[in-house]
Amino acid sequence: MQLHKTDRARAELKSGNRTLSQRERTLLLLADGNKSVMDFRPLFNGDGEEIALRMLREGFLQVQSGKAAEDARPPEPVAEKPQRAMPGSLPLSRNHPVPPAPARVSADQFDGKRSLATTRMFLFDICERMFSRKHPELAATFRDALRDARDRDAMLDASRRMIEEIEKITGHERADSISERIAMLLPDEQAD
Q1: Of 76, 131, 181, 192, whose Cβ has the fewest other Cβ atoms within 10 Å?
Q2: C-alpha distances out from residue 23 to 26, 66, 133, 160, 162, Å
Q3: Does residue 92 lie within any of the structural domains?
Q4: Which domain does 32 fall in, by range?
């Protein structure tokens, strides 16, 4: 069963009002419909599965199976027995189908090859742009972390620390946009 973002998650990622931690937001960005709860287990020092399950319970993520997940909304309940309608309400009926949800299209879709090398180069570029002039100590620290990142988890850890510093310097909107790009560049866990 694959994890998909709900409308609540999309609103959280776009809004100026942040209610989730950076880890929770990163997990939402990585929930692209190709990963299950088990895929998140190794993230965040083993806390990824717990965070994913909490995001499911709180309605930020939903589970759907494979390719049948085109409509991200759960099915509407259908009354099995005739029910008396409350004044001012519409009765439930099987004759009134639920219209399909409109397809969501991201303006910045990425069709390139996901790889650690691509992610590393992107992060080196961000490091130079964001830290090299005004925060050279941070830039050196992040360069070393990126050079030492040999697998997906180490790359995620280095990127998460960079995002936290970027958020302090430029605000959450810039940090979120960089997090989204990282999620598009990182390879799937199976590809490691």
Answers
A1: 76
A2: 5, 25, 28, 8, 13
A3: no
A4: 2-68
